[in-house]
Design brief:
It catalyses: Couples ATP hydrolysis with the unwinding of duplex DNA by translocating in the 3'-5' direction; ATP + H2O = ADP + phosphate + H(+). Its EC number is 5.6.2.4. InterPro entries: DEAD/DEAH_box_helicase_dom, Helicase_ATP-bd, Helicase_C-like, P-loop_NTPase, PriA, PriA_3primeBD, PriA_3primeBD_sf, PriA_C. This protein folds into seven domains: 121 residues, GIY-YIG endonuclease (3-Layer(aba) Sandwich); 70 residues, Winged helix-like DNA-binding domain superfamily/Winged helix DNA-binding domain (Arc Repressor Mutant, subunit A); 85 residues, no CATH class; 189 residues, 3-Layer(aba) Sandwich (Rossmann fold); 168 residues, Rossmann fold (3-Layer(aba) Sandwich), CATH 3.40.50; 58 residues, no CATH class; 95 residues, Alpha-Beta Plaits (2-Layer Sandwich), CATH 3.30.70. 41% of the residues are buried. The protein is built from 26 helices and 34 strands. Helix 8 crosses helix 10, helix 11 crosses helix 12 and helix 25 packs antiparallel against helix 26. The chain is α/β, with parallel strands linked by helices. The chain binds adenosine-5'-diphosphate (ADP) and zinc ion (ZN) (2 copies).
Length: 841
């Protein structure tokens, strides 16, 4: 469809009309902005194209906006400014995406600009906040103008230049956005925002024989010459064992990681240095590929009978249903079934999106998928640099990527022909974005996308969310279940350990029950791997004075500070505040300051003391901050160099190891008794998922030990029996009794202010107004949340429950928004902020 202005208004004479465009600006203002279209631009401007516009006082800022509407009526109330530049000849944002932006801003009660801001990678948004860097991959295939040439020369001298600095270089009258646009088009520069990490390709130092020795004869001469220098000869031989140049000379060009050659001894180190100096070897650098590059292509997968049956059932249900829930136990081979379905959808000529939770996406599954789909598959991950995200975006537009595997933000990619969306681990709460707006749930957004593009949605999980299972029970989704592990593997045996009792009998060693220690020891002897799960990071969550009961608390938040031993500091997990560990109690001066409770760091420590010979790794937020850290830990564990892995919920997600036969779970009680109506469901999911890491291969039945003070709790029995159905029946009844989801929709309003009285006043007024309109049963609060002060802001929550069936949800949201706006514009309540979280978790 040609949406250019000339076509839209072809019935009008050119001279008579001034054209206007309604633009989505990447700012939190709840409306579109009307700009004037300069004469020459009318020919090319299209809905969905990006433009650059001036913004703010004296046009002081520059922003990238997206065209949402084209028309010829001037705005009322303000003088429209001119668009300065068009970035796209063809729409970058599809009509489906525009629809999605609109729907999301309405449904999630946020500004359309917020949606666009999150949707577009910052590399697609030139603004006065932009930084520009020279593209390290650029090799001058293009013609450059003198100005471009000059800027590139400057850019090469600096890591990056700001928009303003470029402006100064271009000089008065120069058009910075136009030059940047041109350079981006030529792939000579990369645009990014300062907050984000910039694109630096990771380099590996490699080594190869000097070209003079590539041929067999010269190589022989060299080896003879080195006869008298055995150390150097040994290094060359070592190289040849890895890279058999004598057989295939061309292999030499690829070389070998330098680290492999001089691994162990210092002698080989110095020999290597000499060999390099004497030009026998030469060093060079290459860009490290993001994922393994020499992947062995996957031989065709043969589904087992049970798997084939499940795949067929799913396809059959898609005949009648748009959404199918696939409930398959851990290790049943869901991924293999997905692969089969993806292949079918691609063969049908449609696009496929495969959503995974953040963490799961970093490793194993991606490698498995790559072995099947190779470089036809795009990967969209938040740990990737912006540049990499832009590449995927463009690959979807160009058709290079018919299939993308990605995290929740992948729902924003410019698909226009989706046939299938898979939401793996659909129960995962990380599909919901908490901050900033839009606070969307990727599973629900995926369903909207699918609805518009007539695609099918497959929700997969070993522990479905109650919401989804309920929909399946109601017949609104299809349901396929698979209760058999792949091969002859079976679900692990789960045992409960009564820590109360062990404490009485004094058989606990620190946090470890004797039962668990025995199993760990046996496992270590058998050289099998163990996973230990404690959903709390740091060394210990409290630091307290034994004499006066003082506890270390965050100065900005209403929480205790967590002790981190390795960095010898106290940290707030809410605001990031850090302080040194006090040697004496700051109140009474006592030296008896001790830590209470335990996190992963402490467990790792104690474990190492108990098993000095064991190789132990820890996986939590603190050990995985670096870009490749997560992958590294997984690889080491996979490679068998590690006996025990201690971790937070990170280790529960989608990992598939051959040799894990024991899982130990700490502090299950805390998960179960968390004060939230979803706590039971969550505990079941988390404990079942982490248990599912054990015994995933035939012939090695796994064992799971759960430490608890009360083995009688019914939920623990359900976990042991893998009784999802029983859990569902019980929980759904509760939800119905109290009118919680899936029987209602929840909207949480959080009111914040640095003055507690003002915060409370605003919250009470809002709650009263909403209660008046909606009735008491639908409005709960205001209430102080568990952590009632964060970053020195006092918080109050109001929870609104809206029945799914009877209420007009749209109208209710509009009403709530109006009441919020009233308060925000009330001068008596200055600086109050109110955040609406729709479908809050
Ligand atoms: P789930 O996601 O359901 O927990 P996975 O898809 O990770 O299970 O499968 C568990 C293991 O079994 C994986 O290592 C997988 O490669 C293997 N597997 C499953 N099905 C097959 C199959 N049909 N052929 C070969 N290997 C399979
Ligand atoms: Zn004290
Ligand atoms: Zn804090």
């Amino acid at each position: 469809m040609d949406t250019s202005l000339r076509t839209l208004f072809s019935h009008l004479e050119d001279e008579e009309v001034t054209f206007f465009a309604d633009l989505i600006l990447p700012i939190p203002v709840p409306r579109l902005f009307t700009y004037r279209v300069p004469r020459g631009m009318a020919e090319i401007l299209k809905i969905g194209a990006r433009v650059i516009v001036p913004f703010g006082k004296n046009n002081g800022r520059v922003l990238t906006a997206v065209v949402a509407r084209l028309h010829n009526s001037p705005p009322t109330g303000y003088q429209a400014r001119y668009i300065s530049e068009v970035l796209d000849e063809y729409p970058l944002v599809t009509s489906y995406q525009l629809e999605l932006f609109r729907w999301m801003s309405e449904y999630y009660m946020c500004c359309i600009g917020d949606v666009m801001n999150v949707a577009l990678p910052s590399g697609l948004k030139i603004s006065s906040q932009s930084k520009v860097q020279f593209n390290p991959d650029f090799d001058y295939p293009e013609l450059l103008t003198p100005v471009e040439e000059m800027l590139l020369t400057e850019l090469k001298k600096h890591p990056a230049l700001s928009y303003e600095e470029l402006g100064r270089l271009v000089g008065e009258g120069g058009n910075v956005p136009a030059v940047i646009k041109s350079l981006v088009g030529k792939k000579a520069v990369i645009v990014f925002e300062e907050v984000k990490e910039k694109y630096v390709p990771k380099m590996v130092r490699k080594i190869r024989l000097h070209r003079n020795y590539e041929e067999k004869e010269q190589l022989l001469v060299l080896l003879q010459r080195l006869e008298k220098l055995p150390k150097q000869q040994e290094v060359v031989m070592r190289y040849l064992r890895h890279v058999p140049v004598q057989i295939t000379p061309s292999l030499n060009q690829k070389g070998l990681d330098k680290s492999i050659l001089n691994q162990d001894d210092e002698l080989s180190q110095s020999s290597l240095t000499t060999l390099i100096k004497n030009q026998v070897f030469e060093t060079f650098e290459v860009i490290q590929p993001r994922f393994a590059d020499n992947l062995v292509p996957q031989a065709e997968i043969r589904l087992t009978d049970a798997q084939r049956q499940a795949a067929q059932d799913i396809m059959a249900q898609f005949e009648r249903q748009n959404i199918v829930l696939f409930h398959g136990i851990t290790g049943s081979g869901k991924t293999e079934i997905y692969i089969d379905l993806i292949q079918q959808a691609l063969a049908g000529g449609t696009q496929v999106l495969y959503l995974l939770p953040e963490i799961a996406l970093t490793t194993q599954i991606v490698v498995r998928l790559q072995r099947v789909f190779g470089d036809k598959m795009g990967i969209y991950h938040s740990k990737f640099s912006d540049n990499e995200r832009v590449e995927v975006w463009k690959g979807v537009v160009s058709g290079q990527y018919q299939f993308v595997v990605g995290v929740r933000s992948a729902v924003f990619l410019p698909f226009d022909n989706l046939g299938l969306i898979i939401v793996d681990e659909e129960h995962e709460t990380s599909y919901k974005q908490h901050d900033p707006a839009p606070r969307y749930h990727a599973r629900d957004v995926a369903m909207m996308l699918a609805h518009w593009q007539q695609a099918k949605v497959l929700l997969g999980s070993a522990t479905p969310s109650l919401e989804s299972y309920y929909q399946a029970q109601q017949g609104r989704y299809g349901l396929v279940e698979l209760f058999q592990r792949f091969g002859d593997a079976t679900l692990p045996d789960i045992m409960l350990v009564n820590t109360q009792q062990e404490k009485k009998q004094k058989t606990m060693k620190n946090e470890f029950s004797s039962a668990l220690l025995d199993e760990l020891e046996t496992n270590l002897e058998r050289k099998e791997q163990s996973i230990l799960f404690q959903n709390r990071r740091g060394y210990s969550p409290y630091m307290q004075c034994e004499d006066c009961d003082w506890t270390a608390e965050c100065p900005n938040c209403a929480v205790s500070l967590t002790y981190h031993q390795r960095d010898a500091e106290l940290r707030c997990h809410y605001c990031g505040h850090k302080e040194a560990v006090p040697r004496v109690c700051p109140v009474c001066g006592s030296t008896k300051v001790r830590t209470i409770g335990y996190g992963t760091e402490k467990l790792e420590d104690q474990l190492q003391i108990i098993f000095p010979q064991a190789r132990i790794l820890r996986m939590d937020l603190d050990t995985t901050r670096a870009k490749n850290a997560y992958q590294q830990i997984i690889q080491e564990f996979e490679g068998g160099q590690v006996d025990m892995l201690v971790g937070t919920q990170m280790i529960t997600k989608g990992l598939d190891f051959d040799n894990v036969s024991l899982v130990g779970i700490f502090d299950a009680d805390r998960l179960i008794h968390f004060p939230d109506f979803r706590a039971t469901e969550r505990a079941f999911q988390m404990l079942t998922q982490v248990s599912g890491r054990a015994g995933r291969r035939a012939g090695r039945k796994g064992k799971v030990l759960i430490q608890t003070t009360n083995p009688q709790q019914t939920i623990l029995q359900k976990i042991i029996e893998n009784d999802y159905r029983g859990l569902y029946e019980e929980e759904i009844q509760e939800r119905q009794n109290f009118n919680y989801p899936p029987f209602s929709r929840l909207i949480k309003l959080t009111i914040r202010h640095t003055d507690k009285a003002i915060s409370l006043q605003a919250a009470e007024r809002l709650a009263a107004e909403l209660t008046d309109a909606l009735g008491e049963s639908r409005v709960l609060g205001p209430e102080e949340p568990l952590v009632e002060r964060i970053r020195n802001q006092f918080l109050f929550d109001i929870l609104i429950k809206i029945e799914r069936e009877k209420m007009n949800v749209k109208a209710v949201k509009a009403y709530i928004q109006d009441r919020i706006n009233d308060i925000l514009t009330d001068k008596g309540l200055r600086q109050v902020s109110i955040v609406a979280d729709v479908d809050c978790l």
